[in-house]
Amino acid sequence: MDGVERQESSSVPGAGPARRRFLGLCAGVGLGAAAACEQVAPAHRSAAPDARLPEAERDRPGTADWRIGSLGAPDAIAGYADRVSVAPGEEFGLSVSTTAAAFRVSALRVGWYGGKQARRVWFSPRIPGRAQRSPAILSGTRTVRADWPRTLTVDTTGWPEGAYLLRLEAESGHQRYVPLILRSTHGAGRTVLLHAPATWQAYNRWGGLSLYAGSDGSYAGRSLAVTFDRPYDQNGAEKFLVYEWAAVVLAERLGIPLAYTTGTDVHADPGVLAGATAVVCLGHDEYWTPEQRRHVTAARDAGTNIAFLGANTCFRRVRIEASDSGPGRTVVCYKSSYTADPCFPARPALVTTDFRAAPGADPESSLTGVLYEGYPVDAPYVVTAPDHWLYEGTGVRAGAGFDHLVGVEYDRVIPGTAAPGPLEITARSPPGVRRPAQPQRLGVLHRGRRRRGLRDRHHALGGGPDGGHRRRQPAPRHGRGHPRLRHPHHGEPAARLRRGPGGPPPPGATPQRRAGVRHRPGVTPARAPCGGGVRVSSGPVRSTMAACC
Predict the structure, then answer these.
(1) How far, in Å, CA of 317 to CA of 320, rounded?
(2) What is the pTM of this model?
(3) Which helix (H) or strand (E) holds 118?
(4) Structural element, H or E, at residue 329
(5) Where is 367: in which H helix or E strand?
(6) pLDDT at position 53, please?
(7) Domain boundaries, the chain
(8) What is d(CA 339, CA 321) in angstroms, rounded to the nearest whole number?
(9) Does residue 223 contact residue 210 with C-beta atoms inside 8 Å?
(10) Straight-line distance from the first to the last Cα atom of the chain, in angstroms, rounded to the nearest whole number
């Protein structure tokens, strides 16, 4: 198709049941399986919506050819945007390096689109290619910067809000993605999908270094700050595709009113959270600034429901700082080297280490209801409260277990630690950690002071002070499934359970990295990272759902 389609669709008034179905699907079943349902009915639609809003897209034809056909060598083609997100109508720059004579760019919006799962809303003309210079490394923080000149400027006028994959297409046939969020400016009455670019960047090893490892692979040689002024490694959008893509496809398929933003945007301006029905942290969302945490907590306390679809959420405290290219381009996290952080010791609340650690200890459980505890883990998800609304329509019974659904990391409820409110346990898991660790709990809903299975992995829901719910799951392998898979045993489209991750890997995953298997570069055992899980806040009951991964 040429240019941007302007086909009219319809809005989604009061999609409460669909939103609840979405949270239920995300809760105890593994998000990939949830997205797999082939008969999910969208919310009722009526008048034609604003073309910039996500619901304007739902009846438009998709683009089957959106995946990468061939990566080629790392230098075949790569690039990055000078903005993590833009509002519809704003411009952004792309810096591209390629060994090909020329390339093109396709802007692919992620959604259901009748099962095609993306739509091309724009493509560029042929652009001459050139190989850019090698990256520079800033000695003080070992930060890798590409610092390439801008190759082209892209105008997003006419693009609807949503999650985009910009596919760089070299004439040699090789391709790579650049992720971009077309953020919403208003989220009142909507479910806000919160993307995690700070975490994407923390694990990015383009140029040889990340916040986990140096060029020699050692933890000691790791970067202390990383920048968005460089491409992402592998296919260019691996963390988005593994942890967030399936949730976006599912949410769009269900037809609920959506808004899109990122953690770095909420850090700078929480306006999109005002009046939101729910906020969904989509997957592995480990790196938060104190400002982002404060803004999300305030939204919860004002009555917005919060769902966390991954364990280890809000585990690392970071700062977002400017670079030579502009504001908000650098993610700073000194971790165990926090005494070298310029904020130490004068400003302990801004020292970049684990939230629960000194000098400014503020455990993440006060937001999430649970604490990250273990990696790696491979355990079943065992239902303990089958009558809870999370499991409506599934037919599950108490004691029903789903093998391999909990992993590769997990959280659990720990008595005596800060919590947002009473929790309820809806599922739990027996021990299954592949290193010395305590038993864990899966589905935990805390109500009052009753807490059971204190050392099992937990799936938890808890309440905020003003009615906002939060939901946290025992880290089922969310986001790793494929929206077209079906569970062989349960016919209810609203919430099918799948036994383990199963199915093909998400698009872009390398064949050897089976879904649900190791998701991060090598880490020293003493500093094991944290990962996926689920927490959801919903309705006037204001509960929190927690998950382990």
Answers:
(1) 10
(2) 0.80
(3) strand 118-123
(4) strand 326-332
(5) helix 365-368
(6) 85
(7) 16-546
(8) 19
(9) yes
(10) 40
